[in-house]
Structures are given as C-alpha cells and as structure tokens.
Amino acid sequence: GLEGAQSCDSDAFAGVTKPGTLLLGDATLTLTVTQNPPIGWTIDCAYGGKEPAGVEIVGTKFVWAGAASSNMFRFFNVHHVNFRGCILDADSVAGTTAILYDGTNSPGSNSNIFENFSIQNALTGFQWGTSAVNDYQLDGTTIRKFQIRSAVANAKGIVVNSGNAGQYSTIEDGAIQSTNIGIDLQETGGFLSIRRVAFGAMSGASPVAIQISASNNLTIDTCQSEGGAAGVRFVKVVGSANLASPILLINNILD
To answer: Model pTM?
Structure first.
C-alpha cells in the first residue's frame, strides 16, 4: 500500500465508477480536497495508535488542510462500502466534518461498514444524514470499534439526521471523548442500537453523552459516561413531540 508522507490535492475517486479496494500503509496524507469513495469500495488503512508500552505507531493518517466547513470524506448514495483502520485528523480547522454519510436515494445507501477508525479534532466527527425533512435511506449501517475525540469547542461525535438513517443499524464498541455532545440523534429511523460505547471528559456548556430529538425503537445498551464538565448528562431528550416510540435503556452507567 501507499506509504510515507503524501499530499492529496484532488479527489482520488473522481471519475471512478467500478468497485475496488484501496490499500494504504504507514503513511500521513495531507488532504486539501474532499474524498468521495463510490459504491462497492473498500478503503483498508494500516493499523495506527499506541501500543501498551506507549510506543506510537502512526498507521494511515489523513490530516485536513483544506477549506473551513468542509468534509474530509463524503460517502454519498453508496452501498456495500467498507472503511476501516484509518485515522482522520481535522486539525481543528473551523467547521470541519471528518466523515459525511448522506444520500438522495439515487440509489439508497445501505449495507455500509465503518470500523476500527479514529477521528480527531473535528467539529463533527461523523455526520449521518443531513435532512430530517427528506428522510433519505441511510440504513443497514454498522459503525464499530472507533474513537472520536476533539479539541474543538462545541464538538459533536456522531450526528444522525434523517428519518431513514439508522434503520436496523448499529453503533457499537467505541469511545467518544472531549466533545460537547457525544451522539446527537436529531432524527433516526427504526431499530437503531447503540451498544458498548464509552463517553469521557465531556466538555462545554450542558454536556451530554446522548441527546435525542426524534427516534423510533431506539436501544441504548451497556454504555457508560464518565467525568468531564459539571452537569454532564447521560441521556437528554429534547423535542419530545417527535418521539414516536420507546427508548430502551439497558445496563448503562453515569459515573
């Protein structure tokens, strides 16, 4: 796979219409342009992080050096995409979203997996849908084994905003740290499960691990929120007129 210090000033997927696999090695890639992987692609990054002895292994790291209020990666109208092993650092550029996952049902977005990834220093780590009005299909999705943390004020870890985003989908086995809102469920589809997610060092005014505006058969299971600013809440429900059906809370801890 690609290795070493690299710069990317264009969309590597521009004009690509066939499925494929991108293998990346121990590399730091500076992005100035949003990357738009198409249908059926696997993006396989090298492992990165700290070993138990504290030794840093860089792995595959993307660093944003583009315009403010942009997306590092944009997954739009895609299905059967796998995104794994990557580190995304927005470098605290104003308004940056690390991953935008969205669509207009042309075709519907489903059966996508995002796993073993890390997001750093973005205003929004993972934006899943952008319209509570249009309710575009963004379902059958798995987000797992992840870490999201940010030094940006009022940051959010994961934002879900579409009536058909999150249907029979899962967010699991992750950690969200140093954000104002960990998971912001502005509108979700039915049967979204949030499992084994830890929230820590929540910051800013009125910090909350999981904020719910509209949901449908939501399950929150074996999650934990610990430490952070005064007054942190584990779950906060707002806009209750839109809540269509039960929220099931199982084995959760506010420490």
So the answer is: 0.93
